[in-house]
Amino acid sequence: MSSNTTNRAYLLQTAGENAGTWGLDPGLNGNFQKVDTNLGGVTTVSLSSSNVTLSSTQYANGTIILSGALSANVLVVFPAIQAWYTVFNQTTGSFTATLASQGATEAIAIEQGAIADILINGTQIKFRNLPPVGTYLDLIDSSVPAWITSCTIPPYLLCDGSTFSAVTYPYLNTKLGGTTLPDLRGRARYYLNGGTGRITTAGSGIDGDTRLAAGGTQNITLTLAQSPAHDHGGQATGTLNFVTHTRGITTTTGSVSVPVGILSATGGDQLWFNGTEGYGGTTAPSDPRTIASAGGGGSHNNMSPACISGITLIRAA
Question: Is 90 exceeded by the pLDDT of residue 200?
Answer without folding.
Answer: yes
